[in-house]
Amino acid sequence: MAVYVGRWDCTTCGYKGIKGPESECNHCGADRPKDVKFYLADDSEIVQDPEALKRARSGADWECSYCGENNQAFENKCMSCGNNRDASDGDKSLKTKTYYNNEVPRTGDNTKEKKLQQVAQTSKPRRKTKKKPLIIILVILVILGLIFGPGHDIEVTVDGFEWERTIKTEEKRKVIEEDWQLPNEGTLINSFQAVHHYNQILDHYETRTRTRQRVTGSEEYVCGKTDMGNGYFEDKYCTRNITESYEEEYEDPVYRQEPVYQTKYKYSIYRWKPAKPLISSGNNHKAEWADTREIKNNHYLRESGRKGIYCIIVKDEENEIHRHEIPEEKWEQLEPGTSLKARRGNATGKYRGLSDETLKIK
Ligand SMILES: [Zn+2]
Ligand SMILES: [Zn+2]
Questions:
Q1: How far apart are CA 134 and CA 142, in angstroms?
Q2: Tell me, what's the pLDDT at 126?
Q3: What pTM does this model have?
Q4: Which ligand is located closest to the Cα atom of residue 71?
Q5: Can you tell me the distance from the alpha carbon of 149 to that of 256, in angstroms, rounded to the nearest whole number?
Q6: Closest-approaching ligand to the CA atom of 17
Q7: Among candidate residues 273, 287, 270, the one with its CA nearest the CA of residue 169
Q8: Which residue has the higher pLDDT, 130 or 157?
Q9: Distance (Å, whole) CA 20 – CA 39
Q10: Binning pLDDT at 50, 70 and 90, where does residue 74 land?
Q11: CA-CA 20 to 30 A from 55: which of 109, 183, 299, 350?
């Protein structure tokens, strides 16, 4: 197990990288602090000298409870004041500590080095006001407003009416269907066997190979370092398994799809299907629904919804004709010759249709 020389930093003068076992700063002579933090520099040398190894392995240094001096483990008396080592409690050993590889301290943090002061910039550079692009955007908006804007009001007069009313119908028709059940109203044509679904059936096994891992032994490896409490560090060993991969044969089940047959019924049945709508229309102001007597007297027909389209023909101030679809209720209220508001584009002079307010129902 390799032993390394650790380092410490002087907290008094800030001198860095003093060799671990030294009990005084090489620079200012200050004592190694009681709570010294030993670290392992990247270039720390491995101890070869037998004397140094003996010292490293003798144990953690101890601190004299009387004068505070750091003494080596094998000293029975304080080197500074001569006090006998009080093994019972008073004199304390430095702590040993074990680190895993990624936790091993690489720098000291006891230095009083001043941190670089970051001078905060208080004054921000003045932003140049960008006026030109704003003016261009405004001009573009005005032009767009002229072209696509609401335009101006004009008056149009009601010149005619158009309408179309649709009654949707359904017809009861005989259709042929197939299903797993025969409906009550259905008339059976025939029944037969058909595939209803598939079952997964285990058919056979196939022998395949796969790669697996197995443990064949164990090995020791350097997993960290121990701070020996005297300026030295020592490798820490951990044990791990050695594995090897091997091929294994196994039986893989193979399934097949087996069809499950059931009785299926073919039958005729009456169903409601869309039929020809009843449409009525006119170029007048009297909208009517088509005659539904035909439907009411026929059990094989029924109504399935109504829809109406209502249009007015208007003449603008330039005697041009325009056609507009409007809500039925509004259509009913209008009379020939009624004047309505419409809009015409400012830049293009194009007719834009009736104003929204015109179409509101009063
Ligand atoms: Zn110093
Ligand atoms: Zn002492």
A1: 12
A2: 52
A3: 0.47
A4: 2
A5: 70
A6: 1
A7: 273
A8: 157
A9: 8
A10: confident
A11: 109
> Which of 4, 23, 280 shows the shortest CA–CA distance to 162?
280
CA of 95 to the centre of ligand 2 (A): 19
Rounded CA separation 55/303 (Å): 109
Exposed e or buried b per residue across 103-114, where buried means at least 16 C-beta atoms within 10 angstroms of its C-beta: ebbeebebeeee
Place of tokens 């573009």: 140
> What is the pLDDT, as a whole number, of residue 120?
39
Ligand 1 (ion): which residues have CB within 5 A? 10, 12-13, 15, 25, 27-28, 30
